[in-house]
Specification:
Blueprint: H1 4-30, H2 38-57, E1 62-67, E2 70-73, E3 76-77, H3 82-98, E4 100-105, H4 111-125, E5 142-146, H5 160-183, H6 191-203, H7 208-216, H8 224-238, H9 246-258, H10 276-290, H11 297-303, H12 305-308, H13 331-345, H14 357-366, H15 374-384, E6 392-395, E7 400-405, E8 415-420, E9 431-433, E10 444-448, H16 457-461
Antiparallel strand pairs: 1-2, 1-4, 2-3, 4-5, 6-7, 6-10, 7-8, 8-9
Helix pairs in contact: 1-2, 1-3, 2-4, 5-6, 5-8, 6-9, 7-8, 8-9, 8-13, 8-15, 13-14, 13-15
Length: 463
Amino acid sequence: MADPADDHDVEAMPLYREYLRAMYVMFKSTFVYETNNDTLRISCERVATVANKIRTHLDDVASLELIAEGAYVNRALIKLDASLFDQSDYLYAIFAPLGITAIAAIDETSASDWVELVSSLKRCVGPGGDFRDFANTALENIRISAAEGAAARGGMAVTARFRALRAYATTVITINEVIDALRGGRQLRPMWIKRPLQEMVSLTDEASELLLALAHLKRHKLSIAHHLTNTAVFAMCAARPLGMPRRVVAQLAMEAALHDIGRAFAVESQQLVHSAAERTFALETVRRLVTAGHFNDRMMARAVCCYEVRRWASRRAEPPGDTPYPFSLAGRTKLVAVAHAYSLLTTPLRERSSLLPDEALRVIVADSGRRYDEVAVKLLVNTLGVYPVGSTIALSDGRLAVVLDATSGAAGRPRVKVVREVDGTVVDGALVDLAGPDGARLRVQQCVDGEAFDVNAPAFLLS
């Protein structure tokens, strides 16, 4: 016998999605049209119609709640595709500064009710208004929930740390699903991984250090899916100083997350491969994917990135007899190439152990201007710091510490947490800013393998 709850979900989710879309159109129209404009009124009518359907057929209220990691209607999580995620993200960018978490139709509404709401918004954000007053707007049939009351009402609070952990894990899982689908003969659909990548792009300002830390953990160096996810993290974080539009960063993340997917087909397991024969087979697999006929031009540009990252940035530095590449490397590809190299150098392969983070950076810097683009190398180094987040370092006084913030101070003077005393005792020790007064007499001697000293770096990074 079918579960009535399942029938409810089948009926509810399309309406919930439509409610989010209608709200998005209404708020976007609010900032484009005057209140008496027919287009704005039509968008308000659309919201009223959907809200009334939800109230009549599903619940007594139609409440859209937005938190940083998603959208909820009547506490049901809306399953967001890439387009809906952009719309949810747009609305969240409006809700958060206004100090609100939810807008709900608590009785039957008409277009006039929603016009009144957007009119209040215009007054609050317009000349002479105070946008913070919007949270206190009193309307007859619509309730606005202020952010500060969410905890008292049992509302949902999601931290940037939780969002970063979830987005990273979801990206790895989704890339594995893409690989499994390709192995099963299905077409590559990049939209499958666009949604979690968009979430990580949204986090690069507030949680970039945590994303970088996740990409440095040893347990996140085990598979091709981790390699692709880590490359995307390194690339998108390195691109932050360029001030690129969010859609361009999302495109960069997509290119990085798919750039080396051919490795997954070189052997039956998903372990990273490195021999010349396996690399050739992997590249041939991607070439077949690219030329299979079901890619658009943008998808082909993403997939061909797997060839480009192995080219020399300077053609004058190419070895004699190397096959000339038919066109210059794209700017985003140059950044992906550096991120790719750093990810592989810090990943253990079958024929070699991994390099420590500072060692990997020295290898890349040594080839700057030859194999790797100079600007791309500088962006990555400036992002990671001389001693990247998550590195375990030996201090000059004999203690060990984990790097928590690599770029806030002077070069080579990160903010660290002491995790092992001179006598070998593992501790949850002091925070020390090596660029500040407390760390002035200390210096970093070198990066070390924390596991060799029984230091569990993830426990300190993720606590």
